[in-house]
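We recall that each integer encodes one residue's backbone shape. We quote one record:
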Amino acid sequence: MSNPTFKPSEGKREEFRKYLEKNGVMDALTKVLVNLYEEPEKPEDALEYIRDRLAMQAGIETFTQMKTKIEEYQARVDALTQELEELRISMEPPPPADEEGAPVEEGFEPTGGDENPPEEAVGGSEEAPAEQPPENAD
């Protein structure tokens, strides 16, 4: 925070002004401010106008140009990420198949038919079958 009672000495002010002039800051600011003054329709955001014009004078991209590039690059990254995922899926080996060529589900073990069905399935229930009375042989 600056001290409102602080006043730099005249010598320091002059030294700073010479520094700005030597590095072309005063000239660049003056040109941008004159261009803004001469604009028939003033921009809504004067600071953005000044920032963009200074960037153009310095030979660097403006904020809007950089933002557009970032959006383009992000779209390209998204497209490449999707393409990579599609390639990964296409490179996965197919699931193992049983003898008939159908994919085998995980956790499922083929038994090869019902040659030896479980005992529960033979009687129909878990109770023992009732004994039949012997036939009369008269």
